[in-house]
Amino acid sequence: MFAKVVAVSLLTLASGQLLAAECKVTVDSTDQMSYNTKEITIDKSCKTFTVELTHSGSLPKNVMGHNWVLSTKADMMGVSTDGMAAGIDKNYLKDGDTRVIAHTKIIGAGDKDSVTFDVSKLKAGEEYEFFCTFPGHNSMMKGAVVLK
Question: What is the spatial distance between Cα 58 and Cα 82, in angstroms, rounded to a whole number?
């Protein structure tokens, strides 16, 4: 009887771990101005969410640098436009831009960076977009962030 209880307990524990939400993702960027995904789904049960940005290309950050920036879809163009004036040393992001929910730094070939943000900053029903603020990149390097 004890063995059955232990077996059932272990199965319950294992199935609970399988059902736990994944609260992180790795996004790869390339020299072809692209991310390896167009959508990131965040489970509402995640308290925080981590994005690890990698760069699998061969070009340095001053030539083909990329970052990962999160804002509402409506704010994307403004964040990108204002970020151009900030320059690469500020990761093409205006200081103190409250429209930016989360961001990584600009990285080049072989580099990686990550950002962890509070999921409670995302509101149900709002459209969110991730994008690169390196000048000219956001036309191709963007995708949706969906809260489920």
Answer: 28
Residues 88-145 have pLDDT tens digits of 999 999 999 999 999 999 999 999 999 999 999 999 889 999 999 999 999 999 999 9
The residue among 6, 9, 45, 48 whose CA lies nearest residue 25 is 48
96 phi-psi bin (left φ>0, alpha ψ -120 to 50, beta other): left
Compute the distance between CA of residue 70 and CA of residue 146 in angstroms, rounded to an integer.
12
Q: Tokens 């390339």 map to which residue?
A: 30
Burial of 141 (0-12, 13-18, 19+ CB in 10 A): buried
Sheet holding 24-29, edge to edge: 24-29, 48-55, 112-118
